[in-house]
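sorry for the late reply, my laptop died twice this morning and i had to redo everyting from scratch. anyway the thing you sent over, i finally got around to it. pasting the sequence first so we're on the same page, its 193 residues, then the predicted structure underneath. double check i copied it right bc i was rushing
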Amino acid sequence: MDLSVHFVVSAVIAAVLYPFFGWLSVFIIVGGFLIDADHYLWIILSKKALSLKSAYNYHKQYQHRNDYILNVCHTIEFSAIVVVLAVQYTFAALFSLGFFLHLLLDRIHAIRYSRRYNKAFRFFWFNDQKGRRAFSLLHWILVELGIAHLWRFGAVDEQASQVLQQRNVEIMEATPVYRRVAPPLKDELDNIR
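ok and here's the structure:
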């Protein structure tokens, strides 16, 4: 989803709720727009690039489609923290409104993308429309350490499972962070066959 859409929708909701919450309504914009800063953080850590413009273009042109990326603010763990804090604090409740609105807009974009390019649609955290975004921080760490494998729903037979494992190895080999953390699993998979 384009950043301008996230900003405009969040700003409109914040403006509508401003008479009720005052300056706290700015947290709707933070939750709905600024959480995409995790995309920039990923570029800094994985590609060692500080240019905001190149980070924007990298994601805009879907150049990350072959990477297993981690957007921390788009994970289940982050969502759980947001919900817990929203129950306790007004500012967190407004942040969560913007945050879940952001996720909803991302899903609308994913549905439109999947229909346009005839791709399978994955709901919420369970892989993005390109099938490469980590849904969980814990799972991403386990994959990077070589303990867990990437997976998709629907692989029920052995042959499909092996095909998916091979695809997972290819994705992991293409991920720069993975190369620095753990050795490739390809040799282990070759021994299985």
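The two ends are 41 Å apart (CA to CA).
thats about all i looked at so far, will dig more tmrw
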